[in-house]
Amino acid sequence: MTSQTPYIGYGPTFGKKDKLKTVLIPWFTDFLSPMIPAIAELAGYRFVNCPKTSKTSAETGLRYGNNEVCYPATLVVGDLIAELQTGKYDLNAVAVAITQTGGQCRATNYLSMIKQGLKNAGFGNIPTIAVTLGGQAYQNKQDGFKLPIRKIFKIGMCGLFFGDALFQLYSASIVREKRKGESQQLFDFCMEEARKIILENKPKKMLRLLENAVERFNDIEIVEKKLEKVGLIGEIFVKYNSYGQAHITEWLHEQEIEVMIPPLTGFFMQTFVNQIVNKENGIKRTSALTFKLLPLLYKFLDYYKQKFEKIIQKYRFYTAHESIFEIAQHAQEIIDLSNQFGEGWMIAGEIASFSRRGINRVVCVQPFGCIANHVVAKGIERRIKQLYPAVNLLYLDIDGGMSEVNLQNRLHFLIEKESP
Ligand code: SF4
Questions:
Q1: Contact 354, 260 (CB under 8 A)
Q2: Nearest CA to ligand 1 atom 1
Q3: Ligand 1 close to Cβ of residue 113 (< 6 A)
Q4: What pLDDT is stored for residue 2 in this prediction?
Q5: Domains in the chain, ordered, with CATH?
Q6: pLDDT at residue 283, as a whole number
Q7: 265-280 and 345-356 are packed helices; what angle lies between their axes, rounded to 10 degrees?
Q8: Is the pTM of this model over 0.70?
Q9: Which helix or strand (DSSP H or E) is residue 396 part of?
Q10: Fewer CB atoms inside 10 A, N or C side of the chain?
Q11: Which atom of ligand 1 is found nearest the CA of 370?
Q12: Ligand 1 binding pocket includes 305 (Cβ within 6 Å)
């Protein structure tokens, strides 16, 4: 079977005639998902976000998906099927899409499961799209879908940097704000403005929007208090999706704990480390040209990243994040960088990075069925303890049947143990 061979047993493919269809996408995270339909519109497609992930997503996913897959896969299948079941869509004019990371874990193989789920739920005539950065979908035929990368790359990249920066402003403000709801209101306003800028395809305006956002977040009236910090790491979906992580970030905020979450950009930037490691270790063949172009691409991305960084430094509670190469350097003292399944070595690197910055209480969220992250996260525990004895690491397993109270109890132990 080649990478182009679609999953056997599922007929419809997204052809040229389907270009005008409404394309449903699952909700991922508050600081990125609202911008995705705008980027797609710029690319000539009509993407619509499913509502935020909820209990209905989990129940629907378990009902129509394969319940032995990882929890994020269940939520994604559930999001899409539950939305189709609302009856809001003309089933002849709708398609579904998900991102395909191309990594070694199941995120590359979600589509086959979504197709099976769609069939089980009676939606087996709906075409599917795999959205990939590299442009080539794995095991999905989609002649009608091609992203105009040159047109959307810069604005998409700025959207990503902006989302990370806005999230930092929001996270630090919401635990300190005097008037409840003010940070959320400002966050929603800025996100809506970002959406408009994407439609105009004006990357520079995104920088001005961030300047404005920093000023306005700096103006929010706060309650002066010293806050304890907790780092949150782990699997990408449950880390950034509020329902996926069982709202533990909100709960920690209620306990007056500032939650530090690594920027999403790091997840994408890790490829610059991985490509080198994979070549050196003979894991993957990379053409000489690609290898030459990679540092240039990194430089280009970093140039823009620094522009956003310079602006957000003016925020009164600004926190610097280390570069992906620095994180990798910390990680390789703990684990071999060839461990790239799931979040792989990034888990080790991020714990180390937090500890070096004085944040020693770290929660690692692990979805049910995620062998990739469980193996890495548990496997590095002893080495972490040796190198960073001050770290207090809490692993939280999350699945559809978990009790939020149970998670909160375990968090209580973490935050009370070291509180002054
Ligand atoms: S990293 Fe784990 S939870 Fe995330 S998609 Fe892969 S297998 Fe699933």
A1: yes
A2: 342
A3: no
A4: 46
A5: 16-147 (3.40.50), 227-417 (no CATH)
A6: 84
A7: 120
A8: yes
A9: strand 392-398
A10: C
A11: 2
A12: no
